[in-house]
């Protein structure tokens, strides 16, 4: 099973502010939906709660220490990231997406095979950051540029990185 991190991050590593996104980028939201629809997605409880409800067309696996936490039917609650990965393996999934937050990204990064990063051409204020990445261990395999326009407040690139085989 391939483990793929999906994140939008600023040049300063910011990924969030006050449990939300620090920018307005409709093209990134469309890209995110296209990338993750039809798949299982892993996220922490705070990230899930920032969404307000399950994203349509995706099965959610929420990681939380709260053993009494409840999810709608056909979604999962687990206590560790390892349990989340084991659900994907037991279901025979080809790919599973990790959607954050910061601590979930940090723990999943060593296990990930791919990163789908929206590199936002801005350094906004924020309180949540993507962990440091040793890009010597990753190879860029695709990049698509999106210019700032009347709908997207910042230019950004959709970049896919694959872990190098060592």
Query: Looking across the biggest beta sheet, what order are the strands in?
Result: 5-4-3-6-1-7-10-9
The radius of gyration is: 15 Å
- The number of distinct structural domains comes to 1
Helix content: 10-25%
Strand content: 25-35%
Uncertain segments are: none
**Could you please say which CATH topology applies here?**
Dihydrofolate Reductase, subunit A
Number-wise, the strands total: 10
The end-to-end span amounts to: 18 Å
CATH class: Alpha Beta
The CATH superfamily bears the name Dihydrofolate Reductase, subunit A
Q: Which structural class should the secondary elements be placed in?
A: alpha/beta
What would you say the CATH architecture is? Answer: 3-Layer(aba) Sandwich
Main sheet properties? 8 strands, mixed
Q: Choose one word for the global shape.
A: globular
Folded structure, characterized:
It is a single chain. The chain is of the alpha/beta class and 166 residues long. The protein has a single domain, classed as Dihydrofolate Reductase, subunit A, CATH 3.40.430. It has helices at 26-36, 45-51, 81-90, 102-108; strands at 2-10, 14-16, 40-44, 59-63, 76-78, 95-98, 114-120, 128-129, 138-146, 156-163. An eight-stranded mixed β-sheet has the order 5-4-3-6-1-7-10-9, with helices on both faces. A two-stranded antiparallel sheet has the order 2-8. Helix 2 (45-51) links the parallel strand 3 (40-44) and strand 4. The model has no long low-confidence stretch (mean pLDDT 96).
